[in-house]
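name: query_chain
kind: protein
chains: 1
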Amino acid sequence: MASRAVGATSPLAGTLGECIGEFFGTMVLILFGDGCVAVFGLFTKLNGPVPPNAATPFANQWIVIILGWGLAVMLGIYVTGAISGAHLNPAVTLGLAVRGKCPWNKVLPYWAAQVLGAFVAAAILYFVYKGAIDAAIGTNNIADPVHGVGYVFYTYPKSFVGTFGAFGDEFIGTALLVGLIFAITDGRNQPVQGNLNPLIIGFLIVAIGASFGANSGYAINPARDFGPRLWVAIVSGGASLSVNNYYFWIPIVAPLLGGVVGAFIYDFTIGKVIAAKGLMKSGGAETKGEAVREPAV
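structure:
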């Protein structure tokens, strides 16, 4: 009888473990990201230590949103950077796949883990902030475009922003995101060392929010928008999917297309120049997924 192999590889060492990483990384991302939006939107005109109906100091400043989301992305990447590369975003996963930097058989599992992580995070935030949500909406539907607070969980455009403007905003923002992630993590292109990639990518999110965030809320991540929107669909009777003339498809399609375009632009412009110049990886840096790490000694 043949003897059983010693030290069989655990299923956690493969795609399953990476999907668990993507789930928890995305969950952390949404907990902090949508959490800061909850503070921004739900606590600006409540009775408390400030006079009634006065804005809570600092809570209603745009800087809360852009810094909160930047820190959220940074922390999500730190959770799972060494496990899966911390995509945390279907557009990033697709951009990497089309350029041969992520196996295609991992794309759908990663997407499912990312959307599920965002969905669970939204459910947690809903119950944590249930009192504030009820105080804000009264008897109105949470997804009501005028009296609801769906903006805490998902994005939608300002009233003066048309479909083209919203689509373009998400497309360009995500193209910048993915293209610059490629630049930041390229071991040949002055890479960040000492495990600082998550911090720099967090600053990238801050920059995108400051420059392209106001038109439509800069989802730049299909999971970030669709996962929470699915949760709100459950508690709103599906209204979150039809609100704003079925806007939900834009923060899915535009980021996916923008991510692919950003990946191609980097690889076929700056990437080609780096290759033509024969630049080598800096020092002993080793690029894996989105993480640039020094190899073990």
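note: The first strand starts at residue 286 and ends at 288.
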